[in-house]
Amino acid sequence: MEIFHYERVDVYMNLGRILNSDKGEESLLIEFFEVSKDAFFIFDKNFRITYINPQVESFLGTERKDVIGKVLWDAFTLGKEFAISEECYRAMYDRIPQFWEMFFKSINVWAKIGAYPLKNGGLLVNVRDITRRKYKELELEEN
Q1: Along the chain (143 residues), what's the average pLDDT of each consecutive run of 10 residues?
Q2: FRET label pair with 75: which of 30, 39, 43, 48, CA 20 to 30 Å apart?
Q3: Domain 36-142 maps to which CATH number in 3.30.450.20, 2.40.40.20, 1.20.120.1810, 3.40.640.10?
Q4: CB atoms closer than 10 angstroms to residue 38
């Protein structure tokens, strides 16, 4: 399995295959999420949070026990901002992976987001903080 290559491309190229596998590779994926620098959420088909990794806990200043089982927009303020994105709903209901950038006003953070539909009807969401990059881009545009 190629999931543990150092290149991010290798990880994401294999993500779809693993997510839709019937081979029990989910435990390897969870191991990857636990050590990843990116934030990962898993939602069921009703947007109830079924998994968050440690990076989500530190990013949002929350603990797993406080959000698991809650609906995304009830779990934290950021959830309301995320839930209104068109891409989020397209990924969930049209079952098409979506990739976008958005600004979370409540925490003053730019994020790159990937949303991957799961076979069970849920959604895996990857969130990467790109705030530094966005500010550098804005700086270059101003000069």
Answers
A1: 37 54 65 86 91 87 88 71 74 92 86 90 91 90 82
A2: 30
A3: 3.30.450.20
A4: 19
Quote the distance between the C-alpha of residue 131 and its chain's center: 16
Nearest-angstrom CA–CA distance, 106 and 81: 8
The span from the CA of 29 to the CA of 46, in Å, is 22
Q: What is the pLDDT of residue 25?
A: 60
SS3 content of the chain, % helix, strand, coil (to 5): 45, 25, 30
Q: What is the secondary structure of 21-74 as a DSSP string?
A: -SSSTHHHHHHHHHH-SSEEEEE-TT-BEEEE-HHHHHHHT--HHHHTTSBHHH
What burial letters (b/e) apply to 55-94, b meaning 16+ CB within 10 Å? bbbebbeeeeeebeeeebeebbebbebbbeeebbebbbee
